[in-house]
Amino acid sequence: MTVKTTSSKTSDSYQPSEIEKKWQREWERQGIYKALADKPNKYYLLVELTYTSGDLHIGHWFSWSAPDAFARFKRMQGHNVLFPVGGFDAFGLPAEDAAIKRGIHPKEWTYKNVENMRQQFKTMGPSFDWDKEVVTSDPKYYRWTQWIFLRLFEAGLAYKANVVSNWCPDCKTVLANEHVENGCCWRHTSTKVIQKEVPQWLFAITKYANRLIWPENSSVDWPPEIKEGQNKWIGKSQGLEIAFRVKGLSEKLSVFTTRSDTIFGATFIVLAPEHPLVAKLVSDENQVKVSKYIKTTQEKMQLERLQNVKTKSGEFTGAYAINPLNGEEIPIWVADFVLMDYGSGAVMGVPAHDQRDFDFAQKFNLPIKRVVASPKDSSRAYSGEGKLVYSGQYTGLNSLEAVTKISSDLIEKGIAREKVQYHLRDWSISRQRYWGPPIPIIYCAECGVVPVPDKDLPVVLPEKVDYTPTGKSPLATAEDWVNVKCPNCGGEAKRDTETMDTYVDSSWYFYRYFDPQYDRGPISPKTLDWLPIKVYFGGPEHILGHTLYARFITKVLQDLKLAPKFEEFAQVRKNHGIILGPDGYRMSKSQGNVVNPDEQVAKFGADAVRLYMCFIGPHDKGGTWKLSGIEGMARFLKRVWQLETQPPQANDSAVIESITNKTIKKVTGDLESYKFNTAIAAIMELVNALQAEGVTDESLDNLLLLLAPFAPHITEELWNKRQHKTSIHIHKWPVFDPQVFTDSKVTLVVQVNGKVRDRLEVEAIQASDQTQIEQLALASDKVKNNLKSSKYRTIFVPGRLINFVT
Q1: In Å, what is the CA distance from 502 to each residue of 334, 405, 460?
Q2: Nearest to 676 by CA among 613, 624, 768
Q3: Cα–Cα distances in angstroms (integers) from residue 676 to residues 74, 108, 536, in the given order
Q4: Scanning 50, 459, 644, 806, which has the fewest C-beta atoms within 10 Å of its C-beta?
Q5: Contact 358, 351 (CB under 8 A)
C-alpha cells in the first residue's frame, strides 16, 4: 500500500502535535489496520470491554498501549490481525446514577460518553479496526443477548426461582453487593439492607461446574491466579451426605461432610438460619432468642457472613440430633456462617479437627473430642490425617482407610449416600433496574411463561420510563410497553419488567466483533476461523466474574453448535497491573493524584505517553507515574529524531550491524514474551550505541522498525522521510541473522576514574551488554589493582568503553 502524506517534507524539529494528527488521519483514510475475513494467517487479539465512564483515564492508556504495541508487532510479522476497539460496556447502574444526578436520560449520558471516549482513543493512535466496534446498549447488539437468553431458556438453562438477595425495604428492589454500603442501601443511607427471598432469573451455570474446573494439565496459558481462583470458587467437594435422626421428630437432618472419618468427634450440628427445619426444631424456651438471632442475620449480606469468621455467633435451638454410629445426642445450633444455598444448609461440627468448629466450640463451651491422633497442641484444631482414636470399631485405622470403611458402612445401612457438591451457585442475571437489556419473556394468564419469538427481537428498551427509585421495577412504569398480546393465544399479557445483568452483555461480546452487522444470528458462521482468541488482555478484577461467565457461555454456545470446539475462548490470558499516582497511591479524585492523559498528550505527545506506559514496569505489575519518566521518554524520542535528521558518521559498519542484529533478537524475544518494558530498554541501548558508533541506512531502518509498535507516529514520519513507499506498520518485521556474529570482534576500553587501565576484545554480540562487560572488566587484574573502593558508579558506552568512577 502506497503511503501518501499531506506534506513531503518534515520540519527538522520534532513536533509531535503536528505529525500525530497527520498520521492518524492518514491511517484512517487508508484503512491499513483493517482485519480481512478472506485473508489467511488470522490472529485475533483482544482487550476487555471498556466501561462508558465518560473519560479515558491514564489506566485505560496503560491497559491499551502494550496490547496495541503487540498487535502492531504481530501485524508486521505477517499476521492478519483482528484488533478491535474494546467496544463499550454501556449498560449498568452507573449510567442510571449519573442520569439521576444530572437530570438527563441514561441513553443521552451513555452515548455522549461513547463519542467522547472514541475521540480520546483516536488521539492515542491505536491500530484498531474501527469497523469492528460494538456498543452493548445498541439494540442491534442486545437483540442477540436476548436471543442467547432464549436459547438457554429452551435448553432448560435459564429459569426463575426465589433467591436470597440483598433487599432494600425502602426501594423495594434487589441490590447488587456493590450497592450496599456499611450494611445500608446506597440510596437510603440509613435503611438497613436485609436478606430476602426474591423471584430472580438464573442461568444454570452449576450444570457446567465440572466442565468449568481447570484441569492440572491444561495447555491454555492463563495466569495461575485465575485458574486457582475459579477452581476455588467452583469449590468441588466429593463426600458423603449423612441423614441424622432428630430427637422427637420424624424428619431427618441431612449433613454433608468430606471427612466421615471424624464422625465420632462430632459434638454439635449447625444449621443455616434460613433452614426450613429451624421452625420445627426450636424449643419454646429458645424461641425468642433464636427468632431475634434470625432477624439480625437477615440484615447481613452473605459475603459478610462468610468473611466475618473472627466473630462467632449463634443460638442453641434446644433440639438434638442422634449420631448414627454411636447413638450420642448432639445439640443443634443456628449460626450465620452456614448458608442455606450451599450444600444442605447443615454442618457437622467436629471442633478437634476443624478450626472454625474449634473456635465456635470454645466460644460456647461445647465439647472438643479428638478422634484422629494429632500433635499434643490443644490450642488449635488438627485438620490433618492420622490414626483414629476413640472411634469404636474403626479405632486404629488411618484416615483414608476409615473414610472408605465408614462411608461404605453408612451407605450399606441406608443412612448416607455419596455426593458431589459445589460452592458455585447458579448465576442470578435479572436486575430490577432500567438501563439494561430487557428479559425477553411474556406472562400470559392462559399460556403461562412465554418466550418472545425470535422474529420480535429485539425487545427494545422503552425510553419513556420513570427510572428513579420508586419501589418497583422501572420498566413497570412504561404501561404501553408492558401490556402486550400473547404470542401464543393472542390474549392479554404482560412483559417481564426486569433487565439482565451487564455480565450477560460481556459474556459473549468477543464473538460479535467478527461481523457486528450480521443479522441472522449473534455470530457469523463464515468468520469462526478467527477463533480462538490468541491473546486476551484484561484486568485481574475479572478473575471470578467476567471470565468465568464468558467461559460458561462459550461452552453453552459450543453445545448449541454455534461456536467451534476449543478448550477455552482464548489461548492466552494476560492480566494488566495498575498505575499508581505520583504519590505512590492508587489514583482517585479524592486523593488529588489523578493524572489526566489528555494533558500529557498535549504536552508530550501520544508517542511519549504510549512509550512510557509500556516502559513504566512489567505489564502485569504496573508502576508509579513519575513526571521525570514521561519527560525522559520525550527526550528519548527527540534523540531518535536527531539520528535521522543529523545522523552521526558510522565508524565501523560491522560493529553497528552486530549491535543492531543483537537488538533485533532481544526485542523480538521480549515482545513474544510480553516483556514490553525490557524491549524498550534494548531499543534505548541501540540508540545509545548508534549515537556513539554512528548510523548506517540499514541500522536506522531497523531501529525505526523495532520502535514502530511503541511509537507509531514518529516512526511513520521518519520512515516516510526516508522515502519508503509503504507504511512502516505493514512492513516486514526485521529478522535476527546469527551469521552476523561469526567473526565479528569488538575492542572496548576499560577505564578507572577516566584513565585507561585495560582493553577487552569481545564478540560484537556482547559489546552492548553492560552486565557482561562489567563482569569481564572487574575480572581484570589491571582493573582490580586500580579500583580500590567497593563503591563506584559505572559509565557505559555500548561497543566502546566502560568507566568505573569511585
Answers
A1: 36, 49, 16
A2: 613
A3: 14, 39, 16
A4: 806
A5: yes
Question: Could you tell me where the beta strands, DSSP code E, fall in 10-132?
Answer: 42-47, 50-51, 80-82, 88-89
d(CA 314, CA 282): 13
Query: pLDDT tens-digit profile of 122-152?
Result: 999 999 999 999 999 999 999 999 999 999 9
Residues lower than pLDDT 50 in the chain: 1-10
**How far apart are alpha carbons 95 and 109 in whole angstroms?**
7
What does the block give as the cell for 41?
494467517
pTM attached to this predicted model: 0.84
Q: Which residues pair with 622 in a beta bridge?
A: 578
Reported as a single tens digit per residue, the pLDDT across 263-309 is: 999 999 999 998 999 999 999 999 999 999 988 887 665 655 555 55
Structure confidence at residue 219 (pLDDT)? 87
| pLDDT tens-place string over residues 516-558 | 999 999 999 999 999 999 999 998 877 778 899 999 999 999 9
Query: Which triple of cell numbers denotes residue 382?
Result: 488438627
Q: Which uninterrupted H or E stretch holds 786?
A: helix 781-786
> Does residue 534 contact residue 45 with C-beta atoms inside 8 Å?
yes
For 246, the grid coordinates are 432428630
* Residue matched to cell numbers 572488566: 777
Calculate the alpha carbon distances from 783 to 177, 796, 800 in Å: 65, 15, 17
